[in-house]
Design a protein that fits this description.
It contains eleven helices and five strands. With about 210 residues, it is mainly α. Strands 3-5-4 form a three-stranded antiparallel β-sheet. A two-stranded antiparallel ribbon has the order 1-2. Helix 4 packs parallel to helix 7.
């Protein structure tokens, strides 16, 4: 414990406090000897970085609990054909910086539940670079992250319905192996219809102005 505290730049008393608050996992024990490893040191450095960014110990404890109960990234990515989306690996500090104070336990729990985030050891994995970049851009424009996530949940529901519609349509008239080959056609239809719908929405908004 003394060696771990020294490497982390904290006191043994602080380390004991973190253990009591369950901010770090328990050590591996061999008889009366407790062994700490690089996993514990990485967690302590993450705690220090999050404290520097203004997070409270209570908030950090809630974040740790959320990620410990979150799904493994392998469960999120699933099996089958490779996805067109590129996962992004992030440290907790990078995630906190990306959303400028809005990476709260509530928002992270929502992102975990939605399946945007998964865990891989000490790393956090976002399932899609495009979704991460868009979420970050919307937050930068002043839209609260909680509302971005709520919108994402609704989009997910509609996207699942659209995927089912196109998959059923294709499979009624083509063999299963053509589903991936014809996937770009379905995407083009959705993108074009969304573009037209945004045009109609913008025109309706313009007409409703006094």
């Amino acid at each position: 414990m003394a060696e771990l505290a020294r490497l982390a730049g904290i006191t043994v008393r602080t380390l004991r406090f973190y253990r009591e608050r369950r901010l770090i996992p328990p050590p591996r024990r061999e008889g009366r000897i407790a062994w700490y490893d690089d996993h514990h040191l990485a967690r302590l450095r993450t705690i220090a970085a999050l404290l520097e960014r203004g997070h409270t110990l209570s908030g950090i404890a809630e974040l740790a609990e959320a990620f410990e109960h979150g799904r493994d990234v392998a469960d999120l990515l699933g099996v089958g054909p490779p996805s067109e989306e590129t996962p992004v690996r992030l440290t907790p500090e990078e995630l906190a910086d990306a959303f400028a104070g809005q990476a709260t336990p509530e928002n992270l729990a929502a992102a975990l539940d939605l399946g945007y985030l998964g865990t891989d050891g000490e790393e956090i994995v976002h399932i899609s670079r495009r979704l991460l970049d868009v979420s970050r851009a919307l937050v930068a424009e002043g839209i609260p992250l909680s509302e971005v996530l709520a919108a994402g949940r609704l989009v997910r529901e509609h996207a699942d319905a659209l995927a089912t519609l196109f998959a059923d349509l294709i499979l009624r008239h083509a063999p299963e192996e053509d589903l991936q080959r014809l996937r770009p056609l379905a995407k083009s239809v959705v993108e074009a219809e969304l573009s037209l719908a945004m045009d109609r929405r913008a025109a309706a908004t313009e007409k409703s102005r006094p």
